[in-house]
Amino acid sequence: MNMEEALGILKQKGYKYTKKRKDILSYFDQEDGYRSAKDLLHFMEPAYPGISFDTIYRNLHLFDELAILESTELEGEKHFRISCVGHHHHHFICKQCGITKEIDTCPMDNVKGELGGFQIEDHKFEIYGRCPSCQAS
Hints:
Zn(2+) binds at residues 94, 97, 131, 134. The protein has helices spanning 3-12, 19-30, 37-44, 53-65, 108-111, 132-136, and strands at residues 35-36, 69-74, 77-82, 90-94, 100-103, 126-129. It is an alpha+beta fold and 137 residues long. It has 2 domains: 3-82, Arc Repressor Mutant, subunit A (Orthogonal Bundle); 90-136, 2-Layer Sandwich (Dna Ligase, domain 1). Strands 1-3-2 form a 3-stranded antiparallel β-sheet. Strands 5-4-6 form a 3-stranded mixed β-sheet, with no helix packed on it. The mean pLDDT is 90.
């Protein structure tokens, strides 16, 4: 998803477009991987002295709810990244730095046969580990 698409979703759903929200989206647009609320707070503090975790969390959860961001849990804490659009895929996620790598193989192709009679509405598949850079350090 790009900035224009994200801002379009905000507008379509009736939410205000603010400079803070634009800066939050810009941060995730530039980052490659999952980032925590604390990471975002450190990014935002120079431009918005005194910005609260409450403001950060409210916006992160709004963007997650609107599917502008997607989330995962790493080390017991929610992390976020800009949502992927386009083709169906899954992710490898580095538990140390949060970088992601797309996985085009979908395990649902194998699982569907085991779920005869069940209606699958959605799924999410993630593999966690350490990327080559983090392994080297």
